Amino acid sequence: MKTLSIELAIERLESRGVTVDDITDLVFDLQTPYVENLTKATCKYNVVRVLSKREVQNALLTGIELDQLAEEGKLQQPLQDIVASDEGLYGIDEIIALAIVNVYGSIGLTNFGYVDKIKPGIIAKLNDHADGKCHTFLDDIVGAIAAAASSRLAHSEEGAEVPD
Amino acid sequence: MKTLSIELAIERLESRGVTVDDITDLVFDLQTPYVENLTKATCKYNVVRVLSKREVQNALLTGIELDQLAEEGKLQQPLQDIVASDEGLYGIDEIIALAIVNVYGSIGLTNFGYVDKIKPGIIAKLNDHADGKCHTFLDDIVGAIAAAASSRLAHSEEGAEVPD
Amino acid sequence: MKTLSIELAIERLESRGVTVDDITDLVFDLQTPYVENLTKATCKYNVVRVLSKREVQNALLTGIELDQLAEEGKLQQPLQDIVASDEGLYGIDEIIALAIVNVYGSIGLTNFGYVDKIKPGIIAKLNDHADGKCHTFLDDIVGAIAAAASSRLAHSEEGAEVPD
Amino acid sequence: MKTLSIELAIERLESRGVTVDDITDLVFDLQTPYVENLTKATCKYNVVRVLSKREVQNALLTGIELDQLAEEGKLQQPLQDIVASDEGLYGIDEIIALAIVNVYGSIGLTNFGYVDKIKPGIIAKLNDHADGKCHTFLDDIVGAIAAAASSRLAHSEEGAEVPD
Fold it and tell me: Which of D117, D119, D155 to mutate to test the interface with B (most CBs of B within 10 A)?
């Protein structure tokens, strides 16, 4: 039987069209202005560490489940329409993402909000609705993973603690 | 078609075995030590005001949906087993409840945690698993509504602001 | 003696160089793309309603107090240097701002992070450090008030609830 | 000059009458019902790991600073009276504590609220106000450290991840 693991988390992300490299690119763009000689490898390492957290895996699985159920029309009304249309006043996607952001401290809040608004790279792709997919939760979750990885990276650079 | 409303929120709660009076009783027990001459009517008024908030209705519908899907075995593994068994390290139910608690400020956090741990009244009933039901999300949501209504009541008593 | 009130909150903001109109401008810029025929008067009304909340007033007074104490060199080390320099890994300013953002639901998180990163209008002025002032907490608080007012406005426009 | 470190965090706690052993006792009492053969040494290890986090150290230093300033009458009114009297509607202490609780995921919320309400061991001592001290922030911070250490312990026991 399937158990909670980082492999499963990555598999689910990929099944929804998001790779670890996509999230790595977000982190690289967010942190390049602040970290000298930043490499993609360092960014990827931090994304992987975020994905190894059980809290993150639980948030990810729950959000993707709701997206998929909405896609298949299997939620009750009015939740079905609210999630399927990514209704602007529905904030449960942001709240689930917050569970991810908080794992590396409150400095991640800023990057999360920024990514959620600017919609760079993979986030824009998740939002284009062109392929009949529903990514109401996933776009926030991906932004939150990138924000948390950026926080982890910032803490590591400082070197004053072992963040994980 | 069904739309988001307080009537729908109350209907969904009742379909899962929870009445407004059940939550009113929790608030009455929580606040009686602090508020002189507290009546059930005042408590009920505050519960109703909490239930009129869109953020609360969205949290409630989402949590109950996940409970019902788990009950019917319709979630993917391993999320199905995690939610159905109310697995101790799964914290997404607490996070969704936090969206409710926060609506009347951070003083609700204490009451939420207390109710979640002590499991008074209806919360204990939701937790006994005797009837084959899954209330992994609902018990936290009910506790959160009671905590938020207690906060609202405390703010109103003080009279220094109109909280809503 | 001074008591907690919206007048006091506005007085404190002004004593630190921030007017209600400054925050109104932030809300107007944030919400103009989404709300047809939006007026400054509507934005201002929502800012005032946010400022009338006790949770918001408490966050504002606490944050400004820490800024002023840091300015006067009255905090113990190393907190003095951390706050005075707006140290990047210090996240308590974001956490206090979160108490404000949450008052109108989690949809405010996105706007808060965005404003905190982009630093439009008054936020940039608070961040220029040109005048020997410390605004480590205030810039986040002002962004949070603008984000909360934007959420309140979005909820009011929808008309599905009376948000306050 | 003093820099942020776990030694400094422990020194500050002790200067306010709280030892690592006091917090260890809280964790032991909270987790004994759930963890077989739990030892104080294991509890202490988890408390120390929580205290090694920068986010925790920042929250702790900020909260203790505000407590001490209130004790010395150095805050502006009305914040001075609000903090000195541990005013019931002031929720910034709970918000700062939340920054600590969240570091090991949302399952800590329940224990935090419970401890904050029941006031076991050292928390009761901090609350008795017998010695003219102000511990408005510290009691919540100590409860939050105990709750976070309990979460960390629960995650470690499960063994499904290396939480730090």
Answer: D117
Q: Please give the domain boundaries of chain D with CATH numbers for all domains.
A: 18-158 (1.10.3760.10)
Partners for A (CB, 8 Å, 3+ pairs)? B, C, D
CB B71 within 8 A of CB B84: yes
pLDDT tens-place string over residues C56-103: 999 999 999 999 999 999 999 999 999 999 998 999 999 999 999 988
CA dist B55 and B53 (Å) reads 6
Chain B residue set in contact with C, beta carbons under 8 Å:
4-5, 52-55, 99, 102-103, 105-106, 155, 158, 160-164
Amino acid, res. A123: I
What is residue C160's DSSP assignment? S
Residue tagged 């949450």 (tokens): C102
Q: Which residues of A touch D54 (CB under 8 A)?
A: 105, 155, 158, 160-161, 163
> Residue B73, class by beta-carbon neighbours within 10 Å (0-12 exposed, 13-18 middle, 19+ buried)?
exposed
Q: Considering only CA atoms, which of C128, C136, C26 is closest in space to residue C81?
A: C136
Q: Residue A78: which of B2, B55, B59 has the nearest Cβ?
A: B2
| Interface contact D4-A160, CB threshold 8 A | yes
CB B76 within 8 A of CB A63: no
Phi-psi region of B161 (alpha: psi -120 to 50; beta: other; left: phi over 0): beta
Helices (H), A72-137: 79-84, 92-101, 108-118, 121-127
A27-86 pLDDT, tens digit each: 999 999 999 999 999 999 999 999 999 999 999 999 999 999 999 999 999 999 999 999
A98 CB neighbours in chain C (<8 A) are 106, 109
pTM: 0.94
Cα separation of the two ends of chain B = 28
AA letter at A111: N
Separation CA C15–CA D161 (nearest Å): 49
Q: Which two tokens stand for residue C84?
A: 């005075």
Residues of chain D found within 8 Å of residue B155, distances taken between Cβ atoms: 89
Kindly determine whether residue A105 and residue D103, on different chains, have CB atoms separated by under 8 Å.
yes
- Please tell me what DSSP assigns to residue A86: T
D16-45 as b/e: b if 16+ CB within 10 A = bebebebbbbbbbbbbeeebeebeeebbbe
What is the number of other CB atoms lying within 10 angstroms of the CB of residue D85?
Answer: 13
pLDDT digits (tens, 9 = 90+) for D68-116: 999 999 999 999 999 999 998 999 999 999 999 988 888 888 899 999 8
Contacts of D82 (CB under 8 A, 6+ apart): C4, C58, C61, D90
Contact A4 D106 (CB under 8 A): no
Instruction: Write down the pLDDT at residue C162.
Output: 46
Answer yes or no: do A103 and D106 touch at CB < 8 A.
Answer: no
A89 vs B54: CB contact, 8 Å cut-off?
yes
The 10s digit of each residue's pLDDT in B27-57 is 999 999 999 999 999 999 999 999 999 999 9
Asked if A58 lies within 8 A of B3 by C-beta distance, the reply is no
Give this complex's ipTM: 0.93
- Residues in B closer than 8 angstroms to D34, CB to CB, are 88
Kindly report the nearest CA distance between residue B78 and chain A, in angstroms.
5
Distance from the B3 Cα atom to the nearest Cα atom in chain D, whole angstroms: 30
